[in-house]
Amino acid sequence: MEELGRKRLCISLTLCFFLMGLVFGATDPNDLKVINDFRKGLENAELLKWPDDGNDPCGPPSWPHVFCSGDRISQIQVRGLGLKGPLPQNFNQLSKLSNLGLQGNLFNGKLPSFSGLSELEFAYLDNNEFDTIPSDFFDGLSSVRVLALDYNSFNESTGWSLPDELQKSVQLTNLSLVQCNLAGPIPEFLGTLPSLTVLKLSYNKLTGEIPVSFGASLVQILWLNDQDGEGMSGPIDVISSMTLLTQVWLHGNQFTGTIPDKIGDLTSLKELNLNGNKFVGQVPLSLADMELEKLDLSNNLLTGPIPKFKAGNVTYAFNYFCQPDPGLLCAPEVTALLDFLHDVKYPLNLVAEWSGNEPCKGPWLGLSCNPKSEVSVINLRGQNLNGTVSPSIAKLDSLLEVRFAGNHLNGTIPKTVAELKSLRLLDLSGNNFQPPLPKFHDSVKVITLGNPLLAANQSTPAASPVGSPPINSSRSPPHNLSSGSEQSPPSFVSPSPTSISNPSSSVQVEPHSKNSGRFNSAIVVAAISVVVVLVLLLIPLCIYFCKKRKATSEVPSSIVIHPRDPTDPDDMVKIAVSNNTTGSLLTQTVNSSASNNSTGTESSHLIEAGNLTISVQITTKVDVFSYGVVLMELLTGLIALDESRSEESRYLAEWFWRIKSSKEKLMDAVDPALKADEDTFGTICIIAELAGHCTAREPHHRPDMGHAVNVLAPLVEKWKPVNDELESFSGIDYSLPLPQMLKVWQEAESRVVSYNSLSDSKGSIPAKPIGFADSFTSTDGR
Fold it and tell me: Does the CA dihedral 413-418-422-423 come out positive or negative?
């Protein structure tokens, strides 16, 4: 009996437990419907290995990849199964869902709204093929801690942005939205989420600046790199306040400004990538002292010296540092100029041009130098400069002229600028400088027109308008060609006519009409510069020619050089060479006139040199590009365009740009007639660099002709004819300085000069005129 009772008890208990399983193991019908809809939408549901006739995902036994809490589904984990198809739009009815792992599949179509999933803590939807995200997706996700939507091309045509509803997800610690077509600015509320430590927003279409709210953020890992399109921009000062940062990726954007000095306060930082932005200025020493695991500063606009870094892995290629190696300091002049750049907020057009450690070599925009390779002129008119003038420019003690006209500069002029002993001109016109203005020496001309705050404090009237032409620095040849002494730089006052008198020369600027107030005086300077260069280049030729042949008749001719557009008759420089019988050989008179009409402004200049008259006409369309090409032709002996040459060298300017930086290639390209050697190669390099500067791709990067004269003038003494035959033939001592040599030439017997024709010239180098000796070569012409 006892044994029978025990058997009955066991059967009863077994039945009881079975019945309890039926009651408590049955899956919630609503959850069952969602999970079946999930299965039906898949193209390859067999990968789930769910029973075909099953109706109880929660079990027992539970279905693979499904986890339940009681009769409610709480987790679905199908990571990397390769499932393909859409999710059911009723997915958010799994209201007890807390952990969802759908990453690494081929789910596609519209992502269903997760609105109302208040218990969801972990949602991994990354690395799928969803194409749309609904606007209410984030509503009610009050418990979410990790949300990953990476690598889904949501709303491809329009992009999408994070809704304000997300700011209610105060428990969110990890938000990963890499390459999911997120667009527009980063919302401010992301910086206020109290638990957020990981923010990954790389490879999207984000724009704008890093929100100020990030300064109080607890974020440790920040990825904002490689934004498509415009990219993110602005300064990054805010990150220096994010003291918990360990990894920062900002590469591949348009961030600007300087690297913040306080970045050294980020004591937990291990990796910083700023590659491929527009950061300017010097590398902060606080950054160099950080013991980072990885630091990348490449492809920016950083200047100054390269510091010695303590980072384990550091790269800094493709910047504008003054020295090639860490620890080397910049030259004092460069340091002063970089201080100036800092105070005018590093304009990109100057940063890109002011590189290296030698301001007098290479295209340092707006600078000219004297024969001692010292900066003598700063000409930055109309460069859209902002900020203030640094006291450091007073360290450039060879400055003759400083031109800041037509910018947006403000503040006061440092007192130290007034202490520059060589300064002759300071043009401040058209800015917003403030008083007090330092007291300058009487020899310094200070122009302050167009500064409202200085107007009330102006003790004497300003003497010149904004458009005053540049004045030649001491690097330029003196105006007085018959005297060895250098004259003071001329002054131009407009609109009234002004004469500049020297012992043997005069320049008269006269208004062409009653509209002369609009006369662009820069044309005058450009024309004068062209004439001076032409005279310097033609002197050896004329000396030899005048002594070699007596002309029997007066045969005028002309050369026409087309700088840019051969089809446009206004776009040219016309040089007319003719004979006359009056005038002194070296009495140089330049008469300038201009007219403003529908055909543009034109300037005409006349030089009389004994029987030789040279008339030059220049229009406002002309720049120095053609002159650069002429220099290339002179150096190489090639013409600008020759279809018979190889495709690589067919266009001289394009080919010359590729080879001019290589000493070996440049030496090979030089015309053998020049007989270049190591002694003269330095001079050739200077001319080659000038030729490249004159033919820069952007017109505003090209110098004016005044700069060309400044560069070439010091070379005249080196390249004077020294051939004994020429000296004995002409009777002139070529060891004399150029002005004295010209004076002797002036006193020599005049000869008639005629050019029969130059129409058969294949380039800018004219053919040898009839009557020249066979020994006369292109070297003599140069």
Answer: positive
How confident is the model over 26-50, as a mean pLDDT? Answer: 95
Tell me the two tokens of residue 650.
Answer: 């067919």
- Residue 146 tokens, joined: 């990790």
Alpha carbon distance 312, 123 (integer Å): 36
DSSP string across 487-507 = PPPP---SSS-EEEEETTEEE
DSSP per-residue letters across 185-223:
EPPGGGGG-TT--EEE--SSEEEBPPPGGGGG---SEEE
CA distances from 450 to 465, 519, 590, 747, 782 (A): 9, 18, 31, 49, 46
**pLDDT at 745 (0 to 100):** 57
Element (H, E) at 616: strand 612-619
Name 562's Cβ contacts closer than 8 Å, sequence gap at least 6: 571, 572, 626
Spatial distance between the Cα atoms of 345 and 280, rounded to a whole number of angstroms: 9
Determine phi and psi for 781, rounding to 5 degrees: -60, -40
pLDDT for 736 equals 59
Token pair, residue 427, equals 């043009």
**pLDDT at residue 427 is higher than 80:** yes
Buried b (16+ CB within 10 A) or exposed e, 344-368: bebbebbbebbbbbebbeebbbbbb
**The pLDDT value given to residue 213:** 97
Digit-coded pLDDT (tens) for 344-361: 999 998 998 898 999 998
The residues pairing with 199 across neighbouring beta strands, listed in sequence order, are 175, 222
Task: Give CA–CA dist 269/272, Å, rounded.
Answer: 8
Phi, psi of 665 (to 5 degrees): -65, -40
**For residue range 280-337, what is the model confidence (pLDDT) as tens digits?**
999 999 999 999 999 999 999 999 999 999 999 999 999 999 999 999 999 999 999 9
714 with 373: CB under 8 angstroms? Answer: no
Q: Kindly report which listed range (170-174, 428-432, 661-665, 711-715) carries the lowest average pLDDT score.
A: 711-715
Measured CA to CA, the distance from residue 496 to residue 487 in angstroms comes to 23
Tokens linked to 177: 């939205």
Instruction: Specify the higher pLDDT residue, 440 or 668.
Output: 440
Structure tokens at 782: 């140069």
Number of H helices, E strands in the chain: 15, 36
d(CA 133, CA 165): 14
DSSP string for 333-372: HHHHHHHHHHHTT--HHHHTT--SS-TTSS--TTEEE-TT
Which residues have a Cβ under 8 Å from the Cβ of 240 and sit 6 or more positions away?
260, 261, 262, 263, 265, 266
Provide the mean pLDDT of the chain: 77
Residue 760, token pair as written in the block: 């058969």
